[in-house]
Specification:
heterotrimer, A alpha/beta, B alpha/beta, C alpha/beta, A: alpha/beta, Rossmann fold, 7-stranded mixed sheet, 7 strands, 36% helix, 15% strand, globular, C: alpha/beta, 8-stranded parallel sheet, 8 helices, 8 strands, disordered N terminus, disordered C terminus, binds thiamine diphosphate, binds iron/sulfur cluster, binds magnesium ion
């Protein structure tokens, strides 16, 4: 599948030609596009099965033109494990929000990562429960207002936000973990590189891979799309520094 | 193949392999852990996949993912673990996935104990998870039958693309009995998994395996598709057995699993004392052998029906429903891991008979 | 009752600690329980049996403790709710009994190398040469169905228990489906194992009804007839035979 990655405005084959349900200014769509482009470029679409989360991206199976499973809330890594173990020849990815992955599904993600399951996780961190209307997530910033912390997140009661990339990098097994953002063209380019690297490592049967993507939720943040980008840049980037937290190294002697 | 002596749990594990199971996911819990221990050795030998997950919650969802590939996969657990699996079981039913779940039951509620019980009847038969769905449920009473039914479970799971459960009380898992495995495994033809499994969208449209239908008409449609399968199960999958049912019976006992074997001993001993009792043993608990029970219970001489369980009148509700008030239905059961003895069963039979006699006299 | 002629063929022991070990489902507990009874019958003053099975949740020798106690056998088992637990409970009394060496102590150990691991923690208390460790063999169990399987079992158990076997008990059976031939075939397997491992066949055991028939008259090893004491809930005790 020779799709030229420079023709940015052509729709990737892996992305269906449908209108998504995402709000204006929501970056879920951008992330979908990047994943689709990477699958196109690496020629993996025909042997890929995605796992959809419960969250705003629950319907992402309607947008990606690959086989898909729709998981219970938080369990995508367990489904991906079961699938990939039975079909190691296929490409498997989970697409999960921060409520899905860092709250209800924390057990599943840690153990899948720690077993070194050879699938890829696209972790979309928007610091809030988007789908259910903007409640506090484990990633909600200190002082950030949500419908369940209307006075702002009080970390003396609810703890500090969880930094997933750092947390999982503390494990010895996972091979590649990087945090990226998608709110500027420059960031998008870097993010795509990271996603491409993750799928390449999976294709080569190397390791567990996770790309955390800082994402906007203008609707629940109560912002215009422009304000949301500013808010992300000023607040989230500080608390969630971008970078590669764990880089794959070939085991010695191989 | 010659007979070998096997613990129920090991026999179940071996039977699953013989039925073509290629993947197994587990989390340790007494009294079923031997299945996992056995398969941790055997699965790699046969080129299958063995994985111990981090919780039953995860294990059942791994099963969900694994079943989506179309391969034969299963898990085993015991009561508290099965409770945690209900989420995925509901999802798998909704997404029409074949998977085998085996519950070697212990006493509950809660952490309960580790001794044998049948207290998960409602959970298994009435649907322990949310939504409009059923699981096909089979209940063996010997280790040999556990072997046969385990193999059948895999077939039925594929036939209906639905989770299939086998429930056995702890005794079934823990006891040793002589078993024989069929030389070769043959089963009736099944629809190809090519029609639905997620195998990659190569030369075909992409497939979505899901239970989400936001449009109520779509969801009701899915429920009706499932319902059609359940109706087919009711027509084709009822299984039961009777023991010493005859025109002389005054009482019909209904019991399943280990409890049925204890009742058989009691029935033999009562027969020697001149009291004729028959036993009806459901093997499929869903679909429940309603017509069959009704037929046996309404024989001319039968005055009453006695349901005996290692639980508190759970199956009795189905027995009563089947009998439609045409005979009095009595109950006897022990719980918490206490297994009724043949003596207790005999006592109950005699008690029911004497109640019968007394009320007859009053009239 | 065992006939007098056959009485002299019962196994006897000079050691004061008898450790009964074997694969899962070899019939260890039934052998241990019957052996304890036999020792009392043969006139041993003090017999104690300790249930060290921490791998099986059911069908452990502790389930026969009432009967054994009534025969004057001391049973060392967890009591109360712990009797039914699947917790790895090793009572301090066990260590005491091993070290005191009063009368005869029978240790009923859980199956396979996993079950025998419990001995490792106690291995410091056993005095070299003061114990018999017997491998109970059932040739109808999948992992001990042939010579190689049996030798592997010996190896695995010795390394997990850190104790050495001193003999073999031939206990091949198929429960109620056992025939004389099955028991004799098992004895043949035990002999092969004996030749390869240099461990003597300590005795042959089997259900009384089978082992006391004529086919066994010429067997040249001691014989322990078993009465089933660990019954399934639907099996009536031997009383109604
Ligand atoms: C077991 C269960 N509990 C709660 C819910 C309701 N629920 C749906 S989505 C969601 C939060 C999703 O947030 P996140 O993962 O951050 O995704 P986002 O919508 O922000 O992309 C919740 C709590 C559910 N579907 N299932
Ligand atoms: S609610 Fe937030 S996360 Fe969900 S689609 Fe809208 S903007 Fe995106
Ligand atoms: Mg979110």
């Amino acid at each position: 599948m020779a799709v030229d990655s420079k023709t940015v405005f052509d729709r990737p084959v892996t992305l269906r030609d449908v209108v998504t349900h995402y709000c204006p200014g929501c970056t879920h769509g951008v992330i979908h596009r990047m994943v689709s482009e990477v699958l196109d470029e690496l020629g993996l679409r025909e042997r890929t099965c995605g796992v959809a989360p419960v969250g705003c991206s629950v319907l992402c199976y309607n947008y990606f033109d690959t086989d898909f499973m729709e998981a219970p809330h938080g369990r995508a890594p367990a489904l991906a494990t079961g699938f990939k173990r039975m079909r190691p020849d296929m490409i498997v990815f989970t697409y999960q929000g921060d409520g899905d992955l860092a709250s209800i599904g924390m057990g599943e993600i840690i153990h899948a990562a720690n077993r070194g399951e050879k699938f890829t996780t696209i972790f979309v961190n928007n610091a809030v429960y988007g789908m259910t209307g903007g409640q506090m997530a484990p990633t909600t910033l200190p002082g950030q207002i949500t419908t369940t912390c209307p006075m702002g997140r009080d970390t003396s009661l609810t703890g500090e936000p969880i930094r997933i990339a750092e947390l999982l990098s503390a494990l010895a097994t996972p091979g590649y973990i990087e945090r990226v953002a998608v709110h500027t063209p420059a960031h998008i380019l870097k993010a795509k590189k990271a996603i491409r690297k993750a799928f390449t490592l999976q294709r080569d049967n190397k390791c567990y891979t996770l790309v955390e993507v800082l994402s906007t939720c203008p609707t629940n943040w109560g912002n215009t799309p422009g304000e949301a980008i500013e808010w992300l840049d000023e607040n989230m980037m500080k608390y969630f520094p971008l970078g590669c937290y764990k880089d794959y190294v070939e085991p010695e002697g191989s | 193949m010659a007979k070998v002596l096997m613990k129920g749990n090991e026999a179940i594990a071996e039977a699953a392999l013989r039925a073509g199971a290629e993947g197994y996911f587990c989390y340790p819990i007494t009294p079923q852990t031997e299945v996992a221990e056995y398969l941790s050795k055997r699965m790699p030998e046969v080129g299958g996949m063995f994985l111990q997950g981090e919780s039953e919650l995860a294990v059942a969802n791994m099963l969900f993912g694994a079943a989506s590939t179309g391969k034969r996969v299963f898990t085993t657990s015991s009561s508290p673990g099965i409770s945690l699996m209900q989420e995925a079981i509901s999802y798998m039913a909704g997404a029409e996935l074949p998977a085998v779940i085996i519950n070697i039951m212990r006493g509950g509620p809660g952490l309960g104990g580790i001794l044998p019980a049948q207290a998960d009847y409602f959970q298994a038969v009435k649907g322990g998870g949310h939504g409009d769905y059923r699981t096909l449920v089979l209940a063996p009473s010997t280790v040999q039958e556990a072997v046969d039914l385990t193999m059948l479970c895999f077939h039925l799971a594929q036939k209906y693309r639905n989770p299939v459960m086998m429930i056995g009380d702890g005794m079934i898992g823990q006891m040793m009995e002589a078993v024989e495995f069929p030389e070769s495994y043959e089963e009736p033809p099944l629809p190809s998994t090519d029609e639905w499994a997620a195998t990659g969208a190569l030369d075909r449209k992409a497939r979505i395996i899901k239970s989400l239908f936001l449009d109520p008409v779509g969801l009701e449609n899915n429920v009706l598709i499932l319902e059609k399968k359940y109706q087919q199960m009711i027509r084709e999958e009822v299984r039961c057995e009777s023991y010493k049912i005859s025109a002389e019976n005054k009482i019909l006992i209904v019991a399943y699993g280990t409890m049925a074997r204890i009742c058989q001993t009691a029935i033999d001993e009562l027969e020697a004392d001149g009291v004729s009792v028959g036993l009806f043993r459901p093997i499929s608990l869903y679909p429940f052998p309603e017509k069959e029970i009704l037929r046996e219970a309404t024989r001319k001489n039968i005055k009453s029906v006695l349901t005996i369980e290692m639980s508190m009148a759970q199956m009795m509700e189905d027995v009563e429903r089947a009998i439609q008030g045409r005979r009095p239905v009595h109950f006897f059961g022990r719980s918490g891991g206490i297994v009724p003895t043949p003596e207790e069963v005999k006592e109950q039979v005699l008690k029911v008979l004497s109640i019968k006699r007394r009320t007859a006299k009053k009239k | 009752m065992i006939s007098l002629v056959k009485q002299h063929r019962l196994p006897t022991f000079s050691k004061s600690i008898l450790i009964i070990v074997g694969g899962y489902g070899s019939g260890k507990s039934e052998v241990a329980v019957n052996l304890s009874r036999q020792l009392v019958n043969a006139g041993s003053a003090q017999v104690a049996i300790a249930d060290l099975d921490i791998v099986n949740p059911y069908f452990r020798s502790r389930e026969a403790s009432e009967q054994l106690t009534s025969l004057g056998i001391r049973t060392i088992n967890p009591t109360g709710g712990q009797h039914y637990a699947d917790l790895p409970i090793i009572l301090p009394e066990v260590k005491g009994a091993i070290e005191q060496r009063q009368g005869v102590l029978v240790l009923d150990v859980g199956g396979d190398d996993v079950g025998a691991r419990v001995l490792s923690s106690l291995s410091g208390s056993f005095e070299e040469g003061a114990y018999e460790m017997l491998l109970v063999l059932n040739g109808n169990r999948p992992f001990t169905a042939d010579l190689d399987g049996c030798l592997k079992m010996i190896n695995d158990i010795e390394s997990s228990s850190r104790l050495k076997f001193t003999g073999i008990v031939s206990n091949t059976h198929l429960l109620e489906e056992t025939t004389a031939q099955i028991a004799l075939d098992g004895l043949e397997l035990a002999r092969q194992v004996s030749r390869r491992s240099d461990l003597p066949v300590a005795f042959l055991s089997g259900l009384k009804e089978i082992i006391e028939c004529d086919e066994f008259d010429n067997v040249d090893v001691p014989i322990l007839p078993l009465e089933r004491l660990l019954l399934k809930p639907w099996e009536s005790s031997a009383g109604d035979e």
